[in-house]
Every structure is written in structure tokens, then in C-alpha cells.
Amino acid sequence: MGQPSTGKLAANVGEIAREARQRAGLTQADVAERVGLATEVYGRLERGRMLPSVPSLRRLCIALRTPSDIFLGLNTGEVPTWVAESAPSEEYDEVPELRRLMRTLRKLDAAQLKLIGLVAAALQKR
């Protein structure tokens, strides 16, 4: 399964944090202090260059009085772009054998993967 687009998620968290902070009339230093982060670190978060840890996200929600689902883009009734991009295909999701095979393949080195590719190609020709 693909990884979520952390860049887009970080950008969403940062945008929401900035908007909520401005609505509350707070400075970045005010929020950073309340969340327990260095002001520079909080600034990176607002610019979408980093994601907060789960405990920091919780403190951010409290400090800015904003539910976590808004930070995560889960409040619109639509699938957020960072989730949609990382969603597995239906075929992959429905075939447990393929999921097991993918877990095994991820552990192999390049030479082993090449060999598996040759074996798979030979099996297709049958």
C-alpha cells in the first residue's frame, strides 16, 4: 500500500494551524509556547514543512480550539487529496494472496527481485 502524501498533509495541517492562530489573534510564539514547541519548529509546521507528533497535534488542537479532523482534512465529507492518492487499488485490496506476496517482496534485495521477475515472466508464458 502506498504511503500518504505527507507533503500535502503537512501543507494542510500548516494552513489550518495558521488560519486558526490568526482567527484567535495569537502569534506563532504564543501557540508554540502553548503546544510546547520551539517557535522555529512551530513556524516550520505552519509552512507545511513538517508534521506534528500525535501528542503535539493533540496539544495544537487544544491550543487552537480546533478538532483534529479539521487538521487532517477529514471534515469536508470528501476524501482528502492526501488520502485519495495513497488509497490502494481495489484489486490489491481484495486479494489477500497479493498483499502477502507484496509484504514478502518488500524484504528482498534487487537481485532477488530480478529473479522473481524472471520467474513471474516465465509463468505468464505458460
TrEMBL record:
CDD domains the UniProt entry points to: HTH_XRE
Gene3D superfamilies found in the cross-reference section: lambda repressor-like DNA-binding domains
Protein name: Helix-turn-helix transcriptional regulator
Listed SUPFAM superfamilies: lambda repressor-like DNA-binding domains
Domain of life (superkingdom): Bacteria
Keyword entries, A-Z: DNA-binding
A Pfam family reported for this protein in Swiss-Prot or TrEMBL: HTH_3
Membrane-spanning intervals of the chain: none
HTH cro/C1-type domain mapped to chain residues: 18-71
